[in-house]
């Protein structure tokens, strides 16, 4: 069973220039957010964070742990006029007794992405890169930015030896509880076949307040924000 915790896990869209244009030029800031996490029906803990790597480089991390699942995703990126440009990523996962490690390198001097580790030869790349491309993890941040700016939720994602287009649709406003307080949130949805990703975005929060992934009508991953700073 493959589990990938990202807003973009099953998404869709236009070309890279459209994605770049959709991002407002808000500055990247360090943060840390704690989540209540449910994966494979078991409760656990999750965390998202951005930490400075010096200069214009940042590391965006996401971890989830319970008794069955141990996931870690990290992407190093820089910011180019509002575009969150991936430079490298490392994904480690343990689901039951199965372990997997995949590393990605985004070589912008050659405009190509390659993958190493536990990947099939046909998934190793290279894949041609375009301005505006992001990996799946960075779409989390782009989605929050674009909901706040009222811009199209459309992106081009490069991951696992492929480039995919993706888009989300606004599904209205809802109340969501964070730390015992009710907050107004914008709900956005992406449906692809038997998979669905639902995201709740709260104003002035740099990360999604909740991410729910469903498959065949059943919840598979649920991240609910508890606190952030």
Structure description:
The structure is a single chain. This protein has 2 helices and 15 strands. Helix content is 9%, strand content 58%. The relative contact order is 0.21. With 229 residues, it is mainly beta. It starts with 15 loop residues before the first helix and ends with a strand. It has helices spanning 16-22, 136-149; strands spanning 31-39, 42-54, 57-65, 69-80, 83-95, 98-107, 112-117, 127-128, 154-159, 162-167, 169-178, 181-192, 195-201, 210-215, 218-228. The strands form 2 sheets. Strands 8-7-6-5-4-3-2-1-15-14-13-12-11 form a 13-stranded antiparallel β-sheet, with helices on one face. Strands 9-10 form a two-stranded antiparallel ribbon.
Which descriptors apply to this entry?
15 strands, 13-stranded antiparallel sheet, globular, mainly beta, 2 helices, disordered N terminus
